[in-house]
Specification:
This protein has two domains: about 200 residues, Medium-chain alcohol dehydrogenases, catalytic domain (Quinone Oxidoreductase, Chain A, domain 1, Alpha-Beta Complex); about 140 residues, NAD(P)-binding Rossmann-like Domain (Rossmann fold), CATH 3.40.50.720. Helix content is about 25%, strand content about 25%. By secondary structure, the protein is of the alpha/beta class. α5 crosses α6. The chain has twelve helices and 18 strands. α6 links the parallel β11 and β12. Strands 3, 5, 6, 9, 10, 17 and 18 form a seven-stranded mixed beta sheet that branches. The protein has a six-stranded parallel beta sheet with strand order 13-12-11-14-15-16, with helices on both faces. A three-stranded antiparallel beta sheet has the order 2-1-4, with no helix packed on it. Its EC number is 1.1.1.1, 1.1.1.4, 1.2.1.3. Belongs to the zinc-containing alcohol dehydrogenase family. Its cofactor is Zn(2+).
Length: about 350
């Protein structure tokens, strides 16, 4: 009889479900099987559910942000062994193709964003990790699963964004969006010690968290103030030196380039569900530099060291924890931003004799 496990499956047409699925097995000698100990619901999962990720395949197990324990490895896996605690890289990459050798591993011709999108991911009891030597990062003994949980996705995204933002110590930096990825971007931006960090969001609670954590100097709510005017006042009429667009709202791209000073760098981190307009005639003469793209998965080892030495601590993002049994309720709360939810952490499935209510 085939062994099964519980998993969250994308069915298409806005439908996801918790189902019994076959246990994963080694398919290639470079694979590893990981027992998932912590997973999360990510905004990208919501985009998949909404049909905004064309590459996503129906009947795929969701989840690309998770940690776990290696329980099986293929003969070709050299760097990981049974019992290793690992965080999983959102990007699958070979390390050998043209793009990988250039450092653009998110564009790997043999991979890219695969887990939880085109192949089965980590909102499950177990999962298969292809190209495991590149796709896993060891978790040190003194780092908890939850401290390492965001390393492979949203923290890697924020870290990558900050690294390409060309931030200088005298800069005024604006971050649009104080959601999970925005907060990770703020944590990474602070490593560069800019003179002023301004966060913009419609949630005062999320901005309050950013300020409490020492991640932002100024908080602006566009429902309460004219953000463009306020930023001009705060920058002696120049505009922001660096802008990070992490919100992905209907108007946030337009706001990003408008609040940037001439010759600024604008980093586009958000994944948009609708096409955006680039009004070149309006921005002519501002000489802006736009940087875009998916997370660069090259920095996971460096990020783990930052977490280990406590330069970055993302545990403040975790507002909810519940077993895989309750994941559908988790999706409802996370998607609708209810109950102050920032990140919903999925703990292992509990069998009926353990899980009550």
């Amino acid at each position: 009889m085939e062994k099964t496990m519980k998993a969250v499956v994308y069915k298409g047409n806005g439908v996801i479900s918790l189902e019994d699925r076959p246990m994963p097995v080694i398919e290639k000698d470079t694979d590893a099987i990981v027992r998932v100990t912590r997973s999360t619901i990510c905004s990208s999962d919501i985009h998949i559910k909404h049909g905004a990720v064309p590459r996503a395949k129906e009947n795929t197990i969701l989840g690309h942000e998770f940690v776990g324990e290696v329980v099986e490895v293929g003969e070709g896996v050299k760097h990981f062994h049974l019992g290793d605690r690992v965080s999983v890289n959102v990007e699958t990459f070979c390390g050998e193709c043209f793009f990988c050798k250039q450092g653009y591993v998110n564009n790997c011709i043999h991979g890219g964003w695969e887990l939880g999108c085109r192949i089965d991911g980590g909102q499950a009891e177990f999962t298969r990790i292809p190209m495991a030597d590149q796709g896993l990062t060891k978790i040190p003994e003194d780092v908890s699963d939850e401290a390492a949980l965001f390393n492979g996705d949203i923290l890697a995204t924020g870290y990558w964004a900050a690294s390409i933002g060309e931030i200088k110590p005298a800069d005024t930096v604006v971050v649009l969006g104080a959601g999970p990825t925005g907060l990770c971007a703020l944590m990474s931006i602070k490593l560069y010690s800019p003179a002023m960090v301004i966060v913009v969001d419609i949630s005062n609670d999320r901005m309050a968290l950013a300020k409490e954590q020492g991640l932002a100097d100024i908080c602006l709510n566009p429902l309460e103030v004219n953000v463009g005017e306020e930023i001009l006042k705060l920058t002696q009429g120049r505009g922001a030196d660096r802008v990070f667009e992490v919100a992905g709202g209907e108007n946030t791209f337009q706001l990003a380039w408008k609040v940037a000073r001439p010759n600024a760098v604008v980093v586009l981190v958000a994944l948009y569900e609708k096409e955006q307009t680039l009004p070149l005639h309006q921005m002519y003469g501002k000489n802006l530099v736009f940087k875009t793209g998916g997370v660069d998965a090259n920095s996971c080892d460096d990020i783990m060291k930052m977490v280990q030495c406590k330069k970055i601590d993302t545990r403040c993002l975790i507002t909810h924890r519940a077993p895989l049994n309750d994941v559908m309720e988790g999706y409802r709360i996370f998607e609708n931003k209810l109950d102050g939810c920032i990140k919903w952490v999925i703990t292992p499935y509990e069998r009926d004799e353990i899980h009550k209510g």
